[in-house]
């Protein structure tokens, strides 16, 4: 594994500037492509799993976080409030309160449950400057978040489905978890004081982990202030562990926001909130992807997917045609002509690009390309249309393999 900060600079993925501030990286075009593809993947996976997406503002009145409990339990990690026309607004430390308010924006029936509300949204954490670095610890976080509002009887199934969604995403992204952790409350006033609430919620998560057959460590002092959680841990290049994905069971915030649904009996009942994140913060997920793949992203995430390599200037017209055809097929292609050096030098410079299409005199005459894969494999020359259709199909399917099931 390599340090994502170093690779991020070398590959022009992201940067930072003291004038913008520590912990506030910006995304360069190639990094923005990776981020966009990742976000679209997540939205698509969530849509298929029955989530509905919303947008909510990154600011809220201080009163909102007083109700959610953030103000009393989490204030030290929040940015200071801003005075605005006689009231105080804060940059949000989480999306939960906004989604609770969206839930209660109208009356809900048991028929709507489980109601799965998802958002890729900004949140802010006043991290001390000493711990900031690259994309893994930032002050402006883009969170892949969702809240499932459901009945008590539905909680275990929803938590299990969320873990499965996380498993599928890790397979597509080529990320391996370092371990699963059941995060429980510790000592001190950081946690909501309601022993029965903690017992109920922890029992559900225990059951889900056991039934999924996942080995895990129970760790005290790592829970959210309002409830226990399953954390999926990953390790960075230095072996430091951090949490990427979480599934949390929350009986607390539904009470604080007085959330209700009308049951089959016509009575009003309290839903449970399952908080879950598939890839956690987009920033940290991409730091992990950069390190895990050493910059050689799965083809569907790669900033440049196809490198078109005419051997000499004579094949330039064919190469331009291939590049144009790639764009029509939705493939991100780049033409690297002889002005960039010898063919060998251009192949080496493009070593992270999954598909390299070489066009020499013979290929140009026959309307073909010779395909070289990033892993060093060289395939026989193929008709251009066939090579491009095959590449586009693999990329569209977000295939983890570069060619032919391997
Ligand atoms: Zn939440």
UniProtKB/TrEMBL annotation:
It comes from the Bacteria. One of its GO terms (biological process) is threonyl-tRNA aminoacylation. One of its GO terms (molecular function) is metal ion binding. GO terms for cellular component: cytoplasm. It catalyses: tRNA(Thr) + L-threonine + ATP = L-threonyl-tRNA(Thr) + AMP + diphosphate + H(+). PANTHER family: THREONINE--TRNA LIGASE 1 (PTHR11451:SF56), THREONINE-TRNA LIGASE (PTHR11451). Belongs to the class-II aminoacyl-tRNA synthetase family. This is Threonine--tRNA ligase. It comes from Amycolatopsis taiwanensis.
């Amino acid at each position: 594994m390599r340090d994502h900060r170093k690779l991020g600079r070398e590959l022009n993925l992201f940067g930072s500037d003291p004038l913008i501030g520590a912990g506030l990286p910006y995304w360069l075009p190639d990094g923005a492509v990776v981020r966009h593809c990742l976000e679209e993947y997540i939205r698509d996976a969530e849509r298929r799993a029955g989530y509905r997406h919303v947008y909510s503002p990154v600011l809220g009145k201080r009163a909102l976080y007083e109700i959610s409990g953030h103000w009393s339990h989490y204030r030290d990690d929040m940015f200071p409030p801003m005075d605005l026309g006689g009231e105080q607004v804060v940059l949000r430390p989480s999306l939960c309160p906004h989604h609770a308010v969206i839930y209660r924006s109208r009356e809900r029936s048991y028929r709507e449950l489980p109601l799965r509300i998802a958002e890729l949204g900004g949140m802010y954490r006043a991290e001390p400057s000493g711990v900031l670095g690259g994309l893994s610890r930032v002050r402006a976080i883009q969170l892949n978040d969702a809240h499932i509002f459901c009945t008590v009887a539905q909680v275990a199934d929803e938590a299990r489905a969320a873990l499965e969604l996380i498993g599928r995403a890790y397979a597509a992204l080529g990320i391996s978890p370092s371990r699963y952790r059941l995060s429980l409350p510790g000592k001190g006033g950081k946690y909501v004081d309601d022993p029965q609430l903690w017992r109920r919620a922890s029992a559900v998560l225990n059951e889900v982990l056991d039934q999924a057959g996942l080995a895990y460590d129970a760790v005290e002092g790592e829970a959210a202030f309002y409830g226990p959680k399953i954390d999926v841990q990953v390790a960075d290049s230095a072996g430091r562990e951090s949490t990427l994905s979480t599934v949390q069971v929350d009986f607390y915030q539904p009470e604080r926001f007085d959330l209700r649904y009308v049951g089959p009996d016509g009575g009003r009942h309290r839903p449970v909130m399952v908080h879950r994140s598939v890839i956690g913060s987009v920033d940290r997920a991409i730091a992990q992807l950069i390190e895990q793949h050493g910059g050689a992203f799965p083809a569907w995430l790669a900033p440049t997917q196809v490198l078109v390599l005419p051997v000499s200037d004579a094949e330039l017209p064919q190469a331009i045609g291939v590049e144009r055809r790639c764009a029509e097929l939705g493939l991100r292609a780049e033409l690297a002509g002889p002005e960039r050096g010898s063919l060998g030098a251009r192949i080496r410079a493009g070593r992270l690009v999954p598909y390299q299409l070489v066009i020499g005199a013979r290929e140009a005459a026959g309307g073909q390309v010779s395909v070289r894969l990033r892993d060093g494999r060289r395939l026989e020359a193929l008709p251009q249309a066939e090579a491009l259709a095959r590449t586009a199909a693999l990329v569209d399917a977000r295939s983890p393999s570069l060619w032919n099931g391997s």
